[in-house]
Amino acid sequence: MNTMNRHSGQRLHARERLRRALTMATAAGLGTALLSGCGSQQFITMGDLASDYNKEIFWMSIWAIALSILIFVGVSYALFYTVGRFREDRNDAAPQQFHGNNRLETWLVVVPVIIVMVLSVLTVRSMAILNPVPAEATKIDVLGRQFWWNFAYPETKADAGGNVTNGNEMIMPIGEQVALTITSGDVIHGFWAPNIGGQRAAMPATLRSWNVDINRAGVYQGNCTQLCGASHANMRYKVVALEPERYASFLAAAKAYRAPEPAAGSAEARGYALFMQGKPETGALACAACHRVQGTPAAGVAGPDLSFFGTRRTLGAGMWEFMEPENHWETPRAREILHEWIKHSPLVKPGSLMPTYDGSEYRANGKLVKGGILTDAELDDVAAYLRSLKLPEEANYWSGTPVFGSQNTTGGTQ
């Protein structure tokens, strides 16, 4: 009897391992299939001297590199001279001792001290230029969470209440200092968009401010640089730098923005109801519990702000990009990816804390929880509502903005 129970238990464990393996294989296959349709993928680009921040670091680096070369040449010369001059086959006598040679020892101390002092002065000078945050700088608050970003504009209060906020796409003006204040809502993250300046750590319960800038309009890639979990590599964002006039137009439209009211009986209206209320009879949670949509009752803070979702060109914190000049969310591939994202986000983005809507399990507060169920038609209704959340065309920050670091540099042109 014990033998039978043991064999039965082994078979159950084997089936459980097989089920897990199949689930992981399905997730990997689905993720690969979706990623294959990402379209243009933008890359990190470094050494961009369109930023005054980067120029200052560049010139400081020139001094450091020059001194390093001088040291290298000096040490190399001394090494090869000594090896050649005092070869054993040319010198039978015992080597001369220089212990107590005060002149030599003085030079060996003074020269490194001078080099360190020069580098210290240059470093302090650069820090004095770069670190102070001017009172007149444009202010943007940055929040990093697993695995997405929120960018809030504390100086611009929305007419519908709260600060103007955008998820995963940071809009900034060119030709002026921008003061970023960063924090984290969970673990340590790293904010780095090298085109606009240096990187900073986003730390829980800590606010850190620094300046960034750029003098050329464009779309630039940013990434998380601190290992923060399963989707660290998928924690991306865009920096969209605009001329001051276009930036002012964006802020004015964002300030006045209220989510459009869907027409009765439309897919958007059905999606709005599901977004706000969920579907309690199947256990499907309301999206509004975690996401904010400006001008609606949705005021969640556990997920990125979705107020301007239809204007954005990225999904899943930059995992997917849709760079078609027109109707980028209406392409078959974009529709398919958005559908799958809403349906089971944790399956296509490891570590995502979004609930599932296909009845599969997901992790919440460290525990596995069974997700609710929405039909494919209902998922499409939610997607239709999200696509309707657009800024006015004159405030479309992607329109006509070149994309740097991408094979498709005209992705923002309309």
From TrEMBL:
Its cofactor is Cu cation. It is a multi-pass membrane protein. Residues 135-253 form the Cytochrome oxidase subunit II copper A binding domain. Pfam families: COX2 (PF00116), COX2_TM (PF02790), Cytochrom_C (PF00034). It is found in: Cell membrane; Membrane. Its EC number is 7.1.1.9. It catalyses: 4 Fe(II)-[cytochrome c] + O2 + 8 H(+)(in) = 4 Fe(III)-[cytochrome c] + 2 H2O + 4 H(+)(out). Residues 266-390 form the Cytochrome c domain. Coiled coil: none annotated. PROSITE patterns: COX2 (PS00078), COX2_CUA (PS50857), COX2_TM (PS50999), CYTC (PS51007). Residues 38-134 form the Cytochrome oxidase subunit II transmembrane region profile domain. The chain crosses the membrane at residues 21-45, 57-83, 104-124. Keywords: Copper, Electron transport, Heme, Iron, Membrane, Metal-binding, Respiratory chain, Translocase, Transmembrane, Transmembrane helix, Transport. Binds a copper A center. Its main location: membrane. InterPro entries: CcO_II (IPR045187), CcO_II-like_C (IPR002429), Copper_CuA (IPR001505), Cupredoxin (IPR008972), Cyt_c-like_dom (IPR009056), Cyt_c-like_dom_sf (IPR036909), Cyt_c_oxidase_su2 (IPR014222), Cyt_c_oxidase_su2_TM_dom (IPR011759). PANTHER family: CYTOCHROME C OXIDASE SUBUNIT 2 (PTHR22888:SF9), CYTOCHROME C OXIDASE, SUBUNIT II (PTHR22888). Subunits I and II form the functional core of the enzyme complex. Electrons originating in cytochrome c are transferred via heme a and Cu(A) to the binuclear center formed by heme a3 and Cu(B). Belongs to the cytochrome c oxidase subunit 2 family. This is Cytochrome c oxidase subunit 2. It comes from Deinococcus aerophilus. The lineage of its organism: Bacteria, Thermotogati, Deinococcota, Deinococci, Deinococcales.
